[in-house]
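Task 17 of the worksheet. Students: predict the tertiary structure of the chain below and write it out as structure tokens. Keep your answer in the requested format; marks are given for formatting as well as content.
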Amino acid sequence: MLVSKREKNYTKKVAEHLKKGMVVVFPTETVYGIGASLEREENIKRIIELKGREEKKPIAIMCASLEEAKKYFEFEKEEFAIANKFFPAPLTMLLKRKRTIPKWFYPEFKKIGLRIPKCETALEILQEFGDILAVTSANKSGREEAKSFEKALFYFGRYPDVLIVDGGKTKEGKPSTVIEIQKEGIKILREGKISLKELEEALNEK
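Model answer:
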């Protein structure tokens, strides 16, 4: 199933698809993401099945705003300083989860990734849907991430239950920087657009 971001009311089609518990592939500023609602565990299992992803590898949660993220994550002082400085951004932060995140969603992990995209299309989808999404990169496990609609279509176009949003090519073309703030400082878990230097400078600002 396909929809273009150029279509009028495209976000309503996407939101309806998500509310039915189905999977959506859509662009972000980094790479295309594949996401679903956290309403039911089966939704997340479908993402894992489609990607061929390890079941124990946690998927990040995508929010429309920092205000919304506060409902689901706990922020220490330094974590909030980084979040407030950068979000929305090509950044994923590992943060302590709150009980508002369903118990079944990777219960063995005290921390889950938070992503607030700097992408009009992704934010419009989140706002129309009105809730958080579990989102990971749109690719088959071990393969290159989809940086264009054509690549997303190549990976997932044959599945009738997957709705793919045509948003052209992504702006950045590489995944988000993934970080965790530890006692020793900021730890980069995956390199991306935002550098360690930029992050450390933000912490040192007064």
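Marker's comment: The mean pLDDT is 95. Residues 2 and 136 are 19 Å apart (CA to CA).
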